[in-house]
Amino acid sequence: MVSENYLSRWAVLIPFIGMDQDDWMAGRTFRPNFLDSLNASRYTFGKLTAKELEMMNYDAFLQLVQKQRSIRRFKPDPLPDEFIDKIIEAGRFAPSGANSQPWEIVVVKDKEIKDQIVEILKEANVGNYKLGQTRPKEEQHPGDRRLHLHPGFQHAPVFFVLFYDKRLKTTYPLSAQAYSCESVTHSSMANIFLYMHMAATCLGLASQWITATAQPLPQALIKQLLDVPREFILYDTMIAGYPDQSPPPRLVRPAAEFTHINRYNRNKYRYDEQVKEFIRAIHQGRSTMPD
Ligand SMILES: Cc1cc2nc3c(=O)[nH]c(=O)nc-3n(C[C@H](O)[C@H](O)[C@H](O)COP(=O)(O)O)c2cc1C
């Protein structure tokens, strides 16, 4: 519990951070060096207030989730800085293993630097294409088949390049450090990444994952280009901008197909042929899209 004297010194800030003085004085608060991260609803313990409940709207949330799509062709129109800030603001509240928040984000707006990233990816895709050709045609992902000579994101206004700091893994319990370190870090990064994509969707923007930036060669070249310290690992890149395409409907599995109550329901087991058929269907859905 924090001392009352100490609290009253900070009480002057309360009107600006949207907290109840009662909450504050009752010690339902956190350490002062996190003052810049205050978010009243996140830190209200117990029952939600009526006002908070009013703001929680499952239908609106579901609509947002359904609206989030991967857009692979962007208009070159610039994004206002306010949108960039809002995307990052949503991301910084993402849950992470041990609250380690291992992320670092380089926001690339400069055309020359973006062009160089695109060149690095095009070069890497020559090898990726050759690799993809070693698979039977019917198993190929659209990305195996195309050279991506003119990626649809090349003129997008903003590239968010996300890195993680591997030193933060020491925040995890020793068992996690020993056995599941990578998955905890990757899940943490996936969380901030998804929050950012959702924020972009909420702002009416388009966004795309670019996993290829994390491959060893693009990773090394992009780190050098952006002057990123060695101990940071490139996780993934989010492209954001205004959409220049509307994707076809997404193929989504019915919940009953993959939900099992209490025990796995073996009647729902998918045989190899069914899995192959499903993979063909999702690849076909993708391949009709320009990129
Ligand atoms: C972990 C992850 C990696 C992804 N990597 C890429 C990528 O490198 N390039 C891309 O165009 N889309 C990428 N996507 C987007 C998926 O292909 C997309 O979410 C999925 O096909 C559903 O399609 P939809 O967003 O159009 O509904 C990725 C998505 C996730 C979750």
Topology (elements, then pairings):
Elements: H1 4-11, H2 14-17, H3 21-25, H4 40-43, H5 50-55, H6 58-67, E1 74-75, H7 81-91, E2 103-108, H8 111-132, H9 142-145, E3 158-165, H10 174-179, H11 181-202, E4 206-210, H12 216-225, E5 232-243, H13 255-258, H14 272-287
Helix pairs in contact: 7-11, 8-12
Features:
disordered C terminus; alpha+beta; globular; disordered N terminus; binds flavin mononucleotide
Briefly, what is this?
By secondary structure, the protein is an alpha+beta fold. It has 2 domains: 1-56, no CATH class; 72-247, NADH Oxidase (3-Layer(aba) Sandwich).
Task: Describe, in plain words, how this protein is organized in 3D.
- This protein is an alpha+beta fold and 291 residues long.
- It has two domains: 1-56, no CATH class; 72-247, 3-Layer(aba) Sandwich (NADH Oxidase), CATH 3.40.109.10.
- Helix content is 45%, strand content 11%.
- Strands 1, 2, 3, 4 and 5 form a five-stranded antiparallel sheet that branches.
- Helix 7 (81-91) runs antiparallel to helix 11 (181-202).
- The relative contact order is 0.15.
- Residues 1-38 and 287-291 have low confidence and may be disordered.
- The site of flavin mononucleotide has 10 residues, from strand 4.
